[in-house]
Amino acid sequence: MSPRRAVPPRRKRTRRPAAGGAQAALTEPMVDRLMWRAGFGPSEADRKRFKGMGLHRAVDRLMSDPRGPAAGPPPRRRDGSPLRPHESDTDLVLAWCDEMIRTRNPLVERLVFFFHRHFATQRDEVSPPQLMTQQNALFRKYADLGSNRISDFKSLVYEVGEGPAMLRFLTGEDSRKGRLNENYGRELMELFCLGVTNAAGQPNYTEADVVEAARASTGWQINDDNPDAPTAFFTQSRWDEGPKTVLGRTGAFNHRQLVDVVTSHPSHAPFLVTKLWGEFIPSAPDAATVRDLVRIYTGNRFRLRPLVRRILTHPAMLASIKEPAMIKPPVVFAIGVMRALGLGITDDTLFNTLRDMGQVPYFPPTVAGWEGGASWLNTNTALARFSAANRLLSLKYATLPTKAPEDEPGETPKQAFARAHAAVGRPWVGRGTKSSLIYYATKARNTSSNDRIARQRVLRAFLLGGPDAQVM
Amino acid sequence: MAHDPEMDRDAVAAAAAAPDPGTAEAVRCADCARSDSLVTDLDPVDRMPIPVEAVAGFPDGVPRAKGLDRRAFLRNGVLGLASIYAASRIDWTRAYEAAVAEGASPANQLVMIYLNGGNDGLNTIVPIADYDAYTAARPNLARAQGPSVAGGRVGSTVMPGTGGAHAWANVCVSGTGNNNDTRGFDTLWGDGSGGAGSDLAVWPAADYTPANRSHFDSRDYWFAGALQKMTTGWLGRWLDLYGSTDNPLQAVSIDSTISKQIRAARAPVSAVRSLNGVEFRVDNVATSLVNTTEQMAPVAAAAVGKGNDGLARARETYARTVQVSRSLRTLVGAPVAAGYPQSDLSNRLQLAAVLLSANLGVKVITLDWGSLDTHGNQLASQDPQLTTLSRALAAFRDDLTARGIEGRVMTVVFSEFGRRVASNNTGTDHGAGGLMMAMGSSVRGGFRGEFPGLRALYQGDLRVTTDFRAVYSSVVSEWLGGDPAAVIPGGPFPLGGPLAG
Predict the structure, then answer these.
(1) Fewer CB near the terminus (10 Å): N or C of chain A?
(2) Inter-chain residue contact B459 with A435, CB threshold 8 Å
(3) In contact, B156 and B145? CB cutoff 8 Å
């Protein structure tokens, strides 16, 4: 049975109006919306490919394109050396960023990034770094919906929990019968599967459940004698084999059985679908939508493909199409700039900008990942974001024969604006902002070549790093 | 300039707010500032000294059109701008005035230091009176009594005034355990009497009950000042009621993000990581040609459609950033004090001292520091952090004293929970009843909360003897000023004695 056929037939067409919605031909702003929310911004090829297509069809394409090999050659630093992700944490981060930049299917890397934030694991607590790379590859296996059409969340939890990176990060390797460590047992329920309370504010689990979950998770250790091939292994004698009572169910549970119990708790599906929805859509789903998504998710045995499809084709994806309304996470913003400028990694600039904006992949601030949403933007990060655009633009100029934007002596202010806009990938810019920038272009000194080049630099930096560039 | 039909109303108004590139010049004249008071409801100027920093920070930001003096601008221009700024609820001129008015009358200031992860209080202040129970509960982690053992256990130093019942871990007292610093928690503690030189108040088991051992819930409760998730923090609500409607520097998180403690419904707040790069800047474009920060002002002021919180947030944040840049650019290069240990915490406290003394209307500063979730390898992880914390706090106090503002600054240190009394081997799991401290000569030092002892635990944790909201309530009523009931829901929360004095 294919996942799509398994969807129960109660779907109501009335809930999915055609107007502005699923089957209407995508306009360019709609394509841009989809490629930002499910990727790292549109390329001209994306615009050409998806314009005029229905949303369902476009989403199907995104979910069916296998990840495949990344486009173009792997990055080299200016001295010709490759990235060395296991010798330098900067390179570890940049190597993943490189995947995001060169990927043929950005949705895959967006989902990898979602999993990383959901199962947040901090490199500074996890050595050797190969463990992080290994976990990242695991996420990619589950995110590549084009190759792994039956990818399901429960199996992902099995593998993450029994993976060396998580065993080290949440100190599960130290937890054994008689010497429990509650770290993983707690986060499995609080962060990965249930949340502390349900929608009605009632606690989903008790402290006793945490202890019992910790008992069930014992027995796992890591063999990293060969750091390039770390493995987790299970030792029966370290496992607490006695009966446990978790969330009202009793049995001699092991880790997988524990995950089965936890994910069958009624709060699991609403928790997970709401969180995944929030990855793509800024407004909270209403109760009916949550019910619908829960039905899709549980009705398809926790598979991710039907759920992602349902969310990405929801009319709310295209809400507020004239004025983008979702704040870009720093990684999406910065990778978007790199892709818009056609830049590859040649130095540490991208890493530094991510650090300044407050989101370095592999280094989430807490076990719960990054808070996200409106909290991304404050008086500190606004400067960091503008500065990121500025620094990445400077990298771009350095690749040009002129080492600067071209000088076009005869161009009018509006032409200057249009040239700047095209040079940075024609990003969304509000009407008031556009007028303001054209007014600037009009007033700016343009008597010398230096003046006009400065005008181009300023316009491009504002278009890529200003307030309007922060939403998608 | 030829009329541009594409130029809509917003842009015309926004353009009027932009300084004419190349012609903006400093207004450093108090007379001009005096005229401002004519069009606002501020106090008469003769009672309002103008801080030079604020004035220096303002002029580039003043919208100035040719042939329009400042007074005329204020009379004629503000109305024209009101419509666009209403969208983001920002009015530059009023913002400036507010900063000036507040800077002129420095009030009490509060620094909140949050120890991230759940600090283990029992290995910070050792319960000597229950020493046997303490060592039995955590055989691998317990501190020794008396001097540290070379190559072995860290010792502890009895806290005067506790009748020998409590001792500081030696990693945070002056002397060899503390990198030979002459300062530490012991020097702040003094004789523990609450008199002169006893400037550290301690609540050994502050929390809420029943304690929920989740980092995230506990943190959210501490930040909200309430046992529920709220969209505002307790200090944010205080700012909404008693703070400025215009000055984002009234509450500063010295962090890359804004602390949930100062999130407000209306009051503007800010995050400042350092004074490096407080301006919007474009490479290879001279500021004399284009002042990028000022150019950002009209761009950020564009109106936003209804219901679009994301874009509204983006534009408002950029506008606030312009405002902050105008103030902070004057502080770039301001001298920082020596005597701090080498650490990120020190760098941020040094900046805190600069901001607190700068007459910018700063009332609250928050800092989120540390990595204290010590499930494993606790000694190797917590001990150096305690050393850094104690030395940096002592240095901060000296810094404030040298700036002549120590008496108006209270510093509160807290964490989201204490840790389990029994160790799990090399670490401790999440518990309850954490260590909370307040520092300053304005603070009544000593043990201000009861130590519940190790013999009657609640689910393996210390019994909570101080509701953290009681400390907050006293901070509001005795220090910041205001009605605690309006800030902290669910009260009253009596502290059982004065916080200050």
Answers:
(1) N
(2) no
(3) yes
Those residues whose C-beta lies under 8 Å from the C-beta of residue A400, and which sit 6 or more positions away, are A406
> Per the CB < 8 Å rule, is A378 touching B257?
yes
Give Cβ neighbours of residue B274 (< 8 Å, ≥ 6 apart). B347, B351
**CB of A99 closer than 8 Å to CB of A331:** no
Residues near A9 by beta carbon (within 8 Å), at least 6 away in sequence: none
Provide CB contacts within 8 A for B189, sequence distance 6+. B159, B160, B168, B198, B199, B200, B202, B445
Structure tokens at B247: 């000055």
Closest CA to A311 of A27, A116, A103, A114: A114
Cβ contact (<8 Å) for A322 and B299? no
Q: Which of B248, B279, B302 is nearest residue A430 as measured by Cβ atoms?
A: B302
Burial of A451 (0-12, 13-18, 19+ CB in 10 A): middle
Beta-bridge partner residues of B115 = B369, B415
* DSSP symbols for B374-403: -SSSHHHHHHHHHHHHHHHHHHHHHHHHHT
- Exposed, middle or buried, A296 (CB in 10 Å: 0-12/13-18/19+)? buried
**Nearest residue on chain A to B305, judged by CA atoms?**
A323
Residue-level pLDDT at B276: 86
pLDDT over 80 at B152, yes or no: yes
pLDDT of residue B28: 23
| CB-facing half-sphere around the CA of A19: CA atoms within 13 A | 2
* pLDDT for B501: 80
Alpha-carbon span B388 to B140, nearest angstrom: 23
Give yes or no for a cis peptide into A128 (omega within 30° of 0). yes
Query: With an 8 Å Cβ cutoff, are B283 and A378 in contact?
Result: no
Tens-place pLDDT, residues A431-441? 999 999 999 99
For A336-388, the pLDDT digits (tens) are 999 999 999 999 999 999 999 999 999 998 888 998 888 899 999 999 999 99
Find chain A residues with C-beta within 8 A of B253's C-beta. Answer: 378
The token duo for A378 is: 């404050």
CA–CA gap between residue A392 and residue A385 (Å, rounded) = 11
Residue pair B418/B462 in contact by the 8 Å Cβ criterion: yes
**DSSP-assigned letter for residue B91:** -
Q: Give the burial class of B372: count Cβ atoms within 10 A of its Cβ; 0-12 exposed, 13-18 middle, 19 or more buried.
A: buried
In angstroms, the Cα distances linking B257 to A36, A340, A386, B413 are 24, 27, 16, 19
pLDDT above 50 for B56:
no
Residue of B nearest to A201 (CA): B228
Q: Is the ipTM, as predicted for this complex, more than 0.85?
A: yes
Rounded Cα distance, B376 and B392, in Å: 25
B284·A404 Cβ contact <8 A: yes
DSSP letter assigned to residue B350 = H
> A471 to each of A28, A115, A270, A374, B85, how far by Cα in Å?
16, 22, 27, 11, 20
